[in-house]
Design goal:
- InterPro entries: EvaA-like, EvaA-like_sf.
- The protein is 19% helix and 33% strand.
- It is an alpha+beta fold.
- The chain has a domain of 177 residues: EvaA sugar 2,3-dehydratase subunit (Nucleoside Triphosphate Pyrophosphohydrolase).
- The strands form four sheets. Strands 6, 7, 8, 9, 10, 12 and 13 form a seven-stranded mixed sheet that branches. Strands 19, 20, 21, 22, 23, 24 and 25 form a seven-stranded mixed sheet that branches.
- Strand 15 and strand 16 form a beta hairpin.
- Helix 1 packs across helix 4, helix 4 crosses helix 10 and helix 7 crosses helix 9.
- The chain is globular, with a radius of gyration of 22 Å.
- The N terminus is likely disordered.
Length: 475
């Protein structure tokens, strides 16, 4: 589908960025590409891409080796990532000690959205990108989504499009730049730069890219498995302002959300002080061990899996893709056994929305704890291990249609490292049966407090950030 030509515009200073971003969030009719045309274009991209993912033995992946001494899976270049064993001990999880495979990827990647003003409205340059682990192959990704090994072209493939806007080589103005974590349950200390950069000159639109407003992206978040995890992460760190009409609305959910963004002083909960106290009291001990030595896990020709059949498996895939920097490659992926639930519980206090977060410790968390959603679990993982271990607030998440639900969608996690990993993202108001006493490590927060913390790294985990982006979309 052809896209409109682009013109030069005046670059604004940082003082009015929030206002301009808010206008983009409110814009749908002013979009360069109408949403129905976007869906036609996106569907056509899926038809035109040649993409095939085949399961492969983990010990015979092209370009990878199994270390004969440790059983670790490593790339022959020594770059990209490896899969190793990790032993963990902490007093702050349902199980105090365990061992598991973990992805070790010390490189810092780039997740970046390029923005440009058209007709007085900021638009985001988004990419229709295939990933080997995506349930539907093609999803809507940021302008740039690349590891350091990829953008330094260790694979000897094509250059990353638009990278020059994010590494300082081209004329652009940085609007947002923060270092954020990825899934602590699966990565050891993994971090990415989350960036929003405004172009100051003409931007040619390459095949597979299109301009969308923030309002369009917010609407697309309600669609299952469409907006990629990396795009959701970057969207969560974009400054948000409530529309004036919403802030003055009656005491409905949207009005309460808008007032929570304003965070009037009488509703301030002191989240940072509480979180700092929790972090100072928690401990997390872990050490890398040979992958072949971790107890409770078995290695077969096509996978490494837990003997219970729960949690996840390490599998191998061979990939062919017509729209990637290299046309074919092989790699390991983590394949969850079941779909998870990520739930954000909310309440209204004097007309101001508050959200319930928890201080969560994961195996690979860099700084012991991060703020997580109210509920973050795979329910089937707790079957047969005693009800006392199951997350106490899981029952507060409505399982079906319910008037308390404000957001409900199935989203995939990062398809470059996870195979068919899905979570149900739910935002709901609490019911009358909600316990008066919160579980240990949980606290109520305003949306403004979360927005202040997400500007900095290692406060909100990626699951909380993605739900925060979904919450923002409800404005």
């Amino acid at each position: 589908m052809p896209f409109p030509a682009h013109t030069r515009v005046t670059v604004h200073g940082p003082a009015d960025d929030v206002r301009r971003l808010a206008r983009s969030a409110a814009a749908v009719d002013e979009a360069m590409v109408p949403t129905d045309q976007f869906h036609e274009w996106f569907t056509d991209r899926g038809r035109r891409n040649r993409y095939q993912v085949r399961r492969a033995p983990i010990d015979r992946l092209h370009g990878w080796r199994t270390d004969p001494a440790t059983g670790n899976l490593e790339h022959l270049s020594g770059r990209f990532f490896s899969v190793q064993g990790l032993e963990v001990s902490t007093a702050h999880r349902e199980t105090r000690e365990w061992a598991q495979p973990i992805i070790v990827q010390p490189e810092v990647g780039i997740l970046g959205i390029l923005v440009k003003e058209f007709g007085g409205v900021l638009h985001c340059l988004m990419q229709a990108k295939t990933e080997p682990g995506n349930v539907n192959a093609l999803q809507l990704s940021p302008t740039v989504q690349a590891t350091r090994s990829n953008y330094t072209r260790v694979h000897r493939g094509n250059a990353i499009p638009y990278l020059e806007y994010f590494d300082g080589e081209d004329a652009a103005r940085v609007m947002v730049h923060t270092l954020q974590s990825e899934q602590g349950a699966s990565f050891l200390h993994k971090r990415n730069r989350n960036m929003v950069v405004e172009a100051t000159g003409d931007v040619p639109v390459r095949d597979g890219f299109c301009w969308l407003t923030l309002g369009q992206l917010n609407a697309l978040l309600a669609k299952d498995n469409l907006v990629h995890m990396d795009a959701r992460s970057v969207m969560s760190v974009i400054p948000v302002a409530a529309p004036p009409a919403a802030a003055s609305a009656p005491d409905d959910f949207r009005g309460a959300l808008a007032r929570s963004l304003a965070d009037q002083p009488r509703h301030h909960t002191g989240l940072l002080s509480w979180f700092t106290g929790v972090k100072s009291r928690r401990a997390l001990d872990r050490r890398l061990v040979p992958l072949d030595s971790i107890g409770g896990w078995r290695r077969e020709a096509d996978r490494i899996s837990h003997e219970s059949g729960k949690y996840f498996s390490v599998i191998g895939v061979d990939v062919e893709a017509s729209d990637r920097e290299v046309p074919s490659w092989s790699q390991p992926l983590l394949a969850p056994a079941r779909r998870g639930v990520l739930g954000l519980l909310t309440r209204r206090v004097d007309g101001v929305l508050e959200v319930l977060v928890q201080a969560r410790t994961e195996a690979g968390t860099l700084d012991v704890v991060e703020l997580a959603p109210s509920v973050q679990c795979v329910p089937e993982n707790y079957e047969g291990v005693g009800g006392r271990l199951a997350p106490g607030l899981l029952g507060q998440i409505p399982s079906g249609p319910d008037p308390r639900i404000r957001f409900d969608a199935i989203h995939s996690e990062e398809g470059g490292r996870f195979y068919h990993a899905e979570n149900r993202y739910v935002i709901a108001e609490i019911g009358g049966d909600f316990p008066e006493e919160l579980p240990d490590g949980h606290a109520w927060a305003t949306v403004r407090e979360l927005n202040e913390l997400v500007r900095h790294g290692h406060y909100l985990n990626v699951e909380a950030r993605c739900l925060l982006a979904c919450l923002h979309s409800l404005l």
